[in-house]
Amino acid sequence: MAALRAAQLGLRVACVDEGVDGQQRPSPGGTCLNVGCIPSKALLESSALYARIIGEAAGHGIDAGPVQLDVARMQARKEKIVRQLTAGVGYLFKKNGVSFMPGRASFKGKEGDQIHLTVQRKDQEREDIAAAQVIIATGSVPRTLESMPFDQERILDSTGGLALTTVPRQLVILGAGVIGLELGSVWQRLGSSVTLLETRDIFLPEADQEVAQQALKILTQSSGLRIELGIHLEAVEKTTESLNLTYTSGGESRKLCADVLILAVGRCPNTKGLELERVGLAPDGQGRIPVDAHCRTPVPGVWAIGDVVRGPMLAHKAEEEGVAVAERLAGQLPEVNLVHIPAVIYTEPELAWVGLTEEAAQAAGRAVRIGRFPFQANGRAKARGAPQGLVKVIACAVTDRILGVHILGPEASELIAEAVVALEFQASSEDLARIVHAHPSLSEALREACLGVDGRTLNL
Predict the structure, then answer these.
(1) Helix runs in 15-70, H state only
(2) Considering 312, 339, 366, which residue would you say is the last residue of a domain?
(3) Is 181 annotated as a binding residue?
(4) How many CB atoms lie within 10 A of CB 105?
(5) Does 316 count as an annotated binding residue?
């Protein structure tokens, strides 16, 4: 996004990217398109469709007959979508005059206003380039544990978890955050017995806890995921047949057998090998590159965006920072409001939020009023067979300005956009409550929650 926007604004741009596909061909698009957002959503959609056919078709008066699962074809569909989108990036580069350089870049040094880099290509050839401005957008990589190195056969990272060719009988995922929940949902729907082991005592501490606890209840009781919190993993023993895990939970020692173990314990900034020190840069204690509010590093001419800097590790946050940096290079003055970056977890039901949680509002000493509306009372959700979850709106008790919106329910990833607009334009709960929403629609639940802030919900 940074390269494309900079080219649109008339700058001469090269984009260096080391991503390759399964055949080791250059594949631009980064983690998101190649091994993250897009492939995971493709598998989530396929697995959800399979689960709905098995579990819901009969209730709709549809006799689907024997349903056959073909994981290879499901994976092929995923790969096709990835190829189409990465090819689209290549097309956009050509259309906008961006020079695409497959390979990995590292800094050589800085002379005057020129920053020198070396690009190492897959064919072992090197090319030196120089530029007045460099944007570091190298993203993140799966966090590793020294005691459990990935073998990508039975101990996998998130990339390996998206590439399984058979459904594991027993799957254990270490980490019950966004990645763990989404991967667990995929393989549980397809028939795997899935256990998620989380070292934290609180489920999704970054989310509003009222909503998170409802999500935990639905995911464990309705979706069939097994989630254990506050565990301490002591050992993983490999045998020829299985992986034997020993861990403590609630002061008790427990054992678990798995065919496959996926480590989803977070991600780290991808800065290894960039030779940052050659231009005077040093990551902080968490491996992030220090930047100011506009993504400038302490080194003039060097910028950094996305997962390698402060803020949430989200593709849409990185995209907006990339566009903003490109526009600043062209003399414009854009802003990216990190407070209003929406977060989404693509489970069923989906979980999405933006702005303050109730806990954060309390910690900040903010007096608030809260409106809630369950999807159980929403006609469209009932017709879709997806009545679980709720919308929660947090508004200032003095000004009625919306401070946060939290949605657990169908299409939460789409519904949250209206909330982001509301927060960006400093809307009040009354503003949304008085806007006409189509009926029947899922979006009515947000309006009803806003009505609830004033204690005048209509359909509850």
Answers:
(1) 30-35, 37-56
(2) 339
(3) yes
(4) 23
(5) yes
Stretch 37-55: mean pLDDT: 97
Average pLDDT, the chain: 96
Same domain, 293 and 411: no
Separation between Cα atoms, residue 47 and residue 33, nearest integer Å? 19
Q: What is the 3-state secondary structure (H, E, C) of 91-115?
A: HHHHHHCCEEEECEEEEEEEECCEE
Would the annotation count 336 as a binding residue? no
Predicted confidence (pLDDT) per residue in 7-21, tens digit: 999 999 999 999 998
CA 108 to chain centre: 33
Q: Are residues 14 and 132 in the same domain?
A: yes
The answer on 446 and 363 residing in a single domain is yes
The tokens describing 210, both together, are 């009222």
> Which residue in the block uniquely carries the two structure tokens 């993993």?
233
Q: Are 213 and 408 in contact (CB under 8 A)?
A: no
Q: Is residue 148 part of a domain?
A: no
**Is 61 flagged in the annotation as binding?**
no
CA distance 3 to 318: 12
Residues 32 and 103 grouped into a single domain = yes
Instruction: Verify that 240 and 359 share a domain, yes or no.
Output: no
Helix (H, G, I), strand (E, B) or coil at 2: helix
Q: Is 175 annotated as a binding residue?
A: yes
When divided into structural domains, the chain yields a total of: 3
108 known member of a binding site: no
Can you name the residues that pair with 277 across neighbouring β-strands?
A: none
- What does each C-alpha distance from 328 to 117, 294, 296, 333 come to in angstroms? 22, 9, 10, 6
Q: Are 260 and 268 in contact (CB under 8 A)?
A: no
Tell me the residue type at 332: Q
Q: pLDDT tens across 258-275, in order?
A: 999 999 999 999 999 999
Relative to beta strand 140-142, strand 134-136 is unpaired
Q: What is the DSSP string of 202-258?
A: SSSTTS-HHHHHHHHHHHHHTS--EEE-SEEEEEEEE-SS-EEEEEEETTEEEEEEE
Q: Which domain holds residue 409?
A: 349-453
Determine whether 439 is an active site residue: yes
pLDDT digits (tens, 9 = 90+) for 131-169: 999 999 999 999 999 888 899 999 999 999 999 999 999
Phi, psi (rounded to 5 degrees) for 393? -115, 130
Please give the Cα distance from 297 to 310 (Å, whole number). 12
Rounded CA separation 197/173 (Å): 6
Query: Is the sign of the CA dihedral 195, 196, 200, 202 positive or negative?
Result: negative
What are 138's strand-pairing partners?
Answer: none
Confirm whether 195 is domain-assigned: yes
Q: Which amino acid is at 341?
A: I
